Amino acid sequence: MGNPSKYSPRTPSYLFPCVLALSFFSLSAILLYKVDDIVSQTKTVVGHNLEPTPWHLFPPKTFDDEARHTRAYKIIHCSYLTCGYSNDASTEERRRSSPSSETTQKCPEFFRAIHGDLQPWVRTKISMAHLAETQKYAAFRVMIVGGKLYVDFYYACVQSRTMFTIWGFLQLLRKYPGLVPDVDLMFDCMDKPIINRTEHQSMPLPLFRYCTTRQHFDIPFPDWSFWGWPEINVRPWQEEFPDIKQGSQTVKWKSKVPRAYWKGNPDVASPIRTELLNCNHSRKWGAQIMRQDWGEAARSGFRQSKLSDQCNYQYKIYAEGYAWSVSLKYILSCGSVALLITPQYEDFFSRGLVPQQNFWLVDPIDLCPNIKRAVDWGNEHPAEAEAMGKRGQELMESLNMDRVYDYMFHLISEYSKLLDFKPTVSSTALEVCPESVLCFADEKQGIFLNKSSVFPSQTSPCTLPPANNS
Ligand SMILES: *[C@@H]1O[C@H](CO)[C@@H](O)[C@H](O)[C@H]1NC(C)=O
Ligand SMILES: *[C@@H]1O[C@H](CO)[C@@H](O)[C@H](O)[C@H]1NC(C)=O
Ligand SMILES: *[C@@H]1O[C@H](CO)[C@@H](O)[C@H](O)[C@H]1NC(C)=O
User: Fold this and answer.
1) Rounded to whole angstroms, what are the CA distances from 11 to 19, 22, 126, 175?
2) Which ligand 2 atom sits nearest the alpha carbon of residue 291?
3) Domain locations in the chain as residue ranges
């Protein structure tokens, strides 16, 4: 029997590093496991860990272009470590020094539609129960609390719609620091309105999206393309509009082709667009119908599909696709007579359209003869036709980004007045700030986002016209 005490001093000397190593490894393992866990549960503005919306399926996004650990790092870094530097003091300062003396502009007449869109909740108010029910149809939830933006992501949206829509909210907060009230709202970013007025009449649900119809409760909100649509190279509106307008002026009215032009994708399950293909005959119907191949356009760097080069016709046709189409604003911007085939969907500004004043309404029954009739009228009354086109363009000119933000501002403000609770941040929400969105953006997205970022406004929002009969 040896003397154990002789060895005892040695025991700790090699046990200690072992224990240390062991605890280090298990700590790292736990940490790695934890990180993996966080990464796999963090939902992001680009769609990590999100399924496509079940009511509008599209191929799920893949992120296999990045190595797994790069992605993990990015998710943690962008989601948790980029916000929080924003300076609340400066917000306070701006709030105090906010503009006051200048006479504020009146908002365009179509802003009145805000009252109509929110009418269903004037009496009942909007409760947490409303939001819980609306969540079933929402892709994300936006909470503004104390001038900061928090988002709960439920489903992915196609392409970069979520990113550019969230960016719009963030720029609004930046433009009007201290003015945007606390709010809690549900948003769906897919095309079709979903809250049917008949089916939901007992409990209207307030769901924000890009368009609505007379048969739906959905609340229209400016679509993502005002901040840019990088996938098809459509730049932010404040660049795109002046460019289209300038392009439209390079050819005088008299030199524009006296025919109706349409270019788009006819394969979107839209009966009207299919019907439109039959009108492709210059002499017989006065129309030229062209197929837009986005794949081909992308491969050729979008040179052929530059919007500002598409204003060389005296008449431009607008045909709804799967739902409303963002192309409406670009068509109206051309200064050509916009031939709108009776639209079913409305977006927030289309309520400013007045038939035969700033556009020509085309009845879809007997489509081709009706297009021909419009073209014949215009060719016989060139001055009137040119003036009608001009008024359409002026409507779009009045819709500069300042007015887009003002619309958002008033819609959100009026909506927030209807909430019967004080908005708070949900336990699952993440703060989103401009830095975190830029952090997730790829190079092209980053360029578009940067182009559409704003500075605090020196002027107040325009004043909202009151509801019609109140
Ligand atoms: C709304 O729902 C009613 C009743 O289910 C249905 O008849 C109608 O077609 C729906 N409207 C729309 C626009 O989907
Ligand atoms: C319409 O007609 C033009 C000229 O004939 C042709 O180039 C074009 O491909 C036609 N459009 C479609 C969609 O077939
Ligand atoms: C966007 O702007 C930020 C801040 O000014 C800058 O750090 C970033 O490099 C810009 N991104 C792109 C793609 O231009």
Assistant:
1) 12, 16, 69, 67
2) 13
3) 37-87+108-223+400-470, 233-346+350-398
Which protein residues are within 6 Å of ligand 2, measured from CB?
277, 280, 289-291
CA of 201 to the centre of ligand 1 (A): 12
pTM: 0.89
208 contacts: CB under 8 Å, gap ≥ 6: 185, 186, 187, 188, 218, 219, 221
**Ligand 1 pocket, 201 CB below 6 A?**
no
Both tokens assigned to 360: 């020509």
Kindly report, residue by residue over 26-48, the tens digit of the pLDDT: 777 777 777 888 888 999 999 99
CA distance 451 to 239: 9
**How does residue 2 score in pLDDT terms, banded at 50, 70 and 90?**
very low
**Which tokens belong to 288?**
């030229």
| Partners of residue 152 on adjacent β-strands | 141
Which positions ≥6 away from 220 have C-beta within 8 Å? 117, 209, 210, 211, 212, 346, 347, 348
Helix (H, G, I), strand (E, B) or coil at 123: coil
CATH architecture of the domain 233-346+350-398 equals 3-Layer(aba) Sandwich (3.40)
CB 464 within 8 A of CB 410: yes
